[in-house]
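QA checklist item 7 of 12: single-chain prediction sanity check.
[x] sequence parsed
[x] length recorded as 183
[x] structure emitted
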Amino acid sequence: MKTFVISILLSLTAAILSAQEVTVLDEARLFYAPLNVAVTQEGDSYVYNIKESQARQFARDPIGFMKANFDIQSFIAHTAKKKYHAYLVTFKSTNGALEADFDSEGNLLETRQQFKNVILPAQLRNEVYNSFQGYTLTKAKYTARTKGEILANATYKIRLENGKDKQNLKIDARSSGVGVAVN
């Protein structure tokens, strides 16, 4: 009986192993689309809505993100029929936006940035923590302007709370040291 059970198990194992087929798959083609976004036109300006998965990268370095994922020359070629003298392109994400002005040749004239719920740079975060012991950061906004690619103005506006006590701070992000101005 023992031999009979073992021979049945061996037969079943052989049947299962021989029943498996090898499937040959077709060739897979991969491509990289760095900025796969929804584009809308509002009058003479264009709005690029950044996906949620790229929003954090966009907020860290908006101009770098724009340079890496947006080709102004192909954009100008695509809109050549309209013969614009300048281009206003807005990049929007859930926590902020970058407006970029380009001339007719594609040179960056200026940008405006506004972001909410940003993470403060480590040096600034440590300075605020040491200066306002017991306070909790509840809001952080970042605004900046550039002329070309040169930073002209950059400001953090943060709100600190400690129970009923509240502090609003406006911090110049361009200065080499961390200067805090209390409102």
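[x] summary fact logged: Strands lie at 38-42, 45-49, 86-93, 96-103, 108-116, 136-147, 150-162, 165-172, 179-182.
[ ] second reviewer sign-off
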